[in-house]
Design goal:
two-stranded antiparallel ribbon, 13 helices, alpha/beta, eight-stranded parallel β-sheet
Length: 365
């Protein structure tokens, strides 16, 4: 069934055997120091049949990581922690790229020794942050200075080099969901009047500079990008999304990156409104490389969007949580196993709701 999803696809230098990608999924299981561990080795190994695994969002620096027990990639210990994860995926026949994450204003000061988070401008995210002491209101960010922007680009470059040391097959820049890159893209969070603000051409400048730095480390054919051109996302919004995301599409087309993933939620999406026009037709008209769509897909909808040319591949997120053998389930037309104890099991510590989901084969045995 769904033969089109099982056609191989070339994503830059990565040859994927199918078009069922594993989307990044924050799970909060890393050890102290944001170090990957043996439980994460098993989690990713179980899901290696995906055409490509995009890792959970991974902090590029102390400044950029504000989620309890999320992994990082800025220290030697973190690099060493990732190595067995990647080796397990490769031994199981899979491919994995690292999603690079700077959360910007969505980092609570508790993660920063009481210092404010950084963003495009001095704004404050709505709602609550997850902290080691529980949920707390977000606090105002301070605007990055021009000299600091250069340092943030350097942080991305350092993290990209560490990802290569760890053995990843490439990297994906997280430019979506209201995090730092998205905060620079959108005029609701970017109030700057300098070279990084005001016009769409200026607001995509940080995106371009970071992608160029990642390309200098990896080559364009091993660099991907995630965007979320779907209305408000964690307090970040734009008055003219077609203008800024069209400009972003021109950047990635100019740079010739390996793939572009768009997160455009359906009616039950986690982030973003669903009453705004989807931007993927506009972006697809500009960006000619592999386009991956994500959010709220089942097998039939994935098949339809690839068959009809709206996407080249589909990144499944939550279905991969409870279906480590999601690819095989789609292949044989089996129902997806439901997530249980949701959303607690998404983020709670320990193996429950993480590596204890059975495969079809184990249920039938």
């Amino acid at each position: 069934m769904h033969d089109v999803l099982f056609q191989p696809i070339t994503l830059g230098a990565i040859e994927a055997p199918n078009r069922i990608l594993m989307a990044p999924l924050t799970r909060g299981r890393a050890s102290p120091g944001s170090v990957p561990n043996a439980m994460m080795v098993e989690y990713y190994r179980q899901r290696a049949s995906a055409g490509l695994i995009i890792s959970e969002a991974t902090g590029i620096s102390v400044e950029g990581l504000g989620w309890p027990a999320a992994p990082g990639i800025w220290t030697d210990a973190q690099v060493e922690g990732w190595k067995p994860v990647i080796e397990a995926v490769h031994q199981a026949g899979g491919r994995i790229v690292l999603q690079m994450w700077h959360m910007g204003r969505l980092v609570h000061p508790d993660f920063l020794g009481g210092n404010p988070p950084v963003s495009a401008s001095a704004t404050c995210a709505p709602g609550n942050a997850h902290t080691p002491e529980g949920t707390k209101l977000f606090e105002p960010a301070r605007a990055l200075g021009i000299d600091e922007i250069a340092r943030v680009v350097d942080d991305y470059g350092h993290a990209a080099a560490n990802a290569k040391k760890a053995g990843f097959d490439g990297v994906q820049l997280h430019g979506a969901n209201g995090y730092l890159i998205d905060q620079f893209l959108r005029d609701g969070t970017n109030l700057r009047e300098d070279a990084y603000g005001d016009s769409p051409a200026n607001r995509v400048r940080l995106l371009r500079e970071v992608l160029e730095r990642l390309i200098s480390v990896w080559g364009a054919d091993r660099v991907g990008l995630r965007l979320s051109p779907n209305g408000e996302s964690q307090g970040a919004d734009d008055s003219n999304p077609s203008a800024v995301f069209g400009e972003a599409a021109r950047v990635v087309q100019d740079l010739g990156i390996a793939f572009l993933e768009l997160r455009e939620p359906g009616p039950n999406g986690t982030f973003g409104r669903t009453d705004v026009p989807k931007q993927n037709p506009l972006i697809r008209s500009i960006y000619k490389g592999p386009l991956v769509l994500n959010s709220d897909y089942d097998a039939a909808l994935a098949d339809a969007d690839v068959s009809e040319g709206r996407a080249d591949a589909i990144a499944f997120g939550r279905p991969f949580i409870s279906n480590p053998d999601l690819v095989e389930r789609i292949r044989v037309g089996s129902a997806f196993a439901p997530n249980v104890n949701v959303p607690k099991s998404w983020y709670m510590p320990g193996p429950e709701g993480y590596i204890d989901y059975p495969t079809m084969a184990s249920v039938d045995a």
